[in-house]
């Protein structure tokens, strides 16, 4: 197994960081360069990254995300946006209609491009011997974050990434059985017993922050009215009707 495969198959999330550690400008630039080189549909690059070092901003983010203190304790926090503002400028320059509000495709493109850039950043961080944790809960406060950071229309906060030097070693988290994820040629039906087996695996893994079975957690989540980004930010009606 080569070093790249070793990094990918041993990736883990870190939430506890050395608060005295400062990420060097060189390492930060390498992470950003890796993120920007991620695949992108039609090379559209429908995302932006905000590097947040300011302590006051990060403290405010924690007020909205109190279960994520690493936003401040990490060396730097990256905020990944879906960004359709850039192509709006292009459309205006060419005097073309900008019809992103007529399809969900634009949201899919922006989210996918941002996610690919995020993953490149995660692997770059690991390659530098550092650690990171992805923060998806920022979408619950997208309106507030948009105002705080003075984001333009046609942008939306999607997820953040705390980066730092880990002080607590983490185990590699088990994933769902391969048969529930990987299919060849056709989608292959599988027994619910595989999900039950995964519940037992995760119970045995005993991650302290998990208080429910994996299956119960998502049964509850999808039974709750959504409060994420598209549901609460009125200005995104310019993107999705």
TrEMBL record:
InterPro entries: Flavin_OxRdtase_Frp (IPR016446), Nitroreductase (IPR029479), Nitroreductase-like (IPR000415)
Pfam families xref list: Nitroreductase
Assigned keywords, A-Z: Flavoprotein, FMN, NADP, Oxidoreductase
Sequence similarity: Belongs to the flavin oxidoreductase frp family.
One annotated GO molecular function: oxidoreductase activity
Record's keyword annotation contains Protein transport: no
Gene3D superfamilies: NADH Oxidase (3.40.109.10)
Nitroreductase domain ranges (all copies): 9-165
Superkingdom, natural source: Bacteria
Name of this protein: NADPH-dependent oxidoreductase
């Amino acid at each position: 197994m080569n070093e790249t495969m070793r990094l990918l198959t041993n990736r883990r999330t870190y939430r506890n960081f050395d608060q005295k550690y400062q990420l060097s400008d060189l390492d930060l630039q390498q992470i950003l360069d890796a993120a920007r080189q991620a695949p992108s549909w039609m090379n559209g690059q429908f995302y932006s990254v905000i590097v947040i070092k300011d302590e006051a901003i990060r403290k405010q983010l924690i007020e909205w995300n109190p279960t994520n203190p690493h936003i401040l304790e990490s060396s730097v926090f990256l905020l990944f946006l879906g960004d359709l503002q850039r192509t709006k400028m292009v459309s205006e320059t060419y005097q073309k209609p900008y019809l992103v509000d007529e399809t969900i495709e634009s949201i899919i493109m922006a989210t996918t491009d941002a996610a690919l850039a995020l993953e490149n950043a995660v692997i770059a961080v690991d390659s530098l011997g550092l650690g990171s944790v992805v923060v998806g809960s920022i979408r619950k406060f997208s309106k507030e974050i948009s105002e705080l950071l003075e984001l333009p229309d046609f942008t939306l906060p999607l997820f953040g990434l705390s980066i730092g030097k880990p002080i607590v070693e983490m185990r590699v988290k088990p994933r769902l059985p391969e048969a529930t994820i990987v299919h060849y040629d056709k989608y292959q039906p599988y027994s619910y017993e595989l999900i039950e087996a995964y519940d037992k695996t995760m119970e045995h893994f005993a991650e302290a922050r998990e208080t429910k079975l994996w299956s119960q957690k998502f049964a509850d989540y999808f039974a709750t009215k959504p409060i994420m980004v598209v549901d609460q930010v009125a200005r995104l009606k310019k993107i999705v009707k």
